[in-house]
Ribonuclease H (Psychroflexus aurantiacus), 206 residues
Amino acid sequence: MSKSSKYYVVWEGYEPGIYSSWTDCKLKIQNYPNAKYKSFPSLEEAKEAYAMGFFNYQKQKKATSKTFSTEGIEWNSIAVDAASSGNPGKMEYRGVVTKTKQVLFHMGPFPNGTNNIGEFLALVHGLAFLKNKKSELPIYTDSKIAMSWIRQKKCKTKLARNSENEKLFELIKRAELWLATNSFKTPILKWQTKAWGEIPADFGRK
């Protein structure tokens, strides 16, 4: 049986790059202080790892290797989450089926928003979505702040209103009006990130 081919990434060495043989790789790292290198089974994986850089690759590897329990998750539910590139910055939110991650709704990105506003709007959107469907499914969020704002029926943001986020504040106004004029029995559940990992609606930007 022929030996399977490998590709070698050298992040830190005499000549960083991707090499198709251990002999070539060894020449670039031997006696180099704290050389950083690794073999990969395919060129595609090697290219991806090299582009990420050593420390980002190690960080991702550590994150994906961590195992989480699924005990206690109510799979027959939906989950919501928000992401913001900067705080404030471009913000978007979405709701998904918890078990399959099928996207049910996705709004944004909106300029000059915050993650807390997104979490709040995502929850209200989810509540309205479920009520419209006459569904009694619970809804997961990983935001205690958003849960608190829902109880108060008010978005307690300190973000200043301006021409860039005018549309966002209109959505906040609509969300608060919906909370003031609608009743619901939907269970709002706190997603336990430390035990279960990232919420299924997560945008994966961490």
Notes: The chain has two domains: 7-63, 78-190. The beta strands are 7-12, 17-19, 36-40, 78-86, 89-97, 103-113, 139-141, 188-190. The first strand starts at residue 7 and ends at 12.
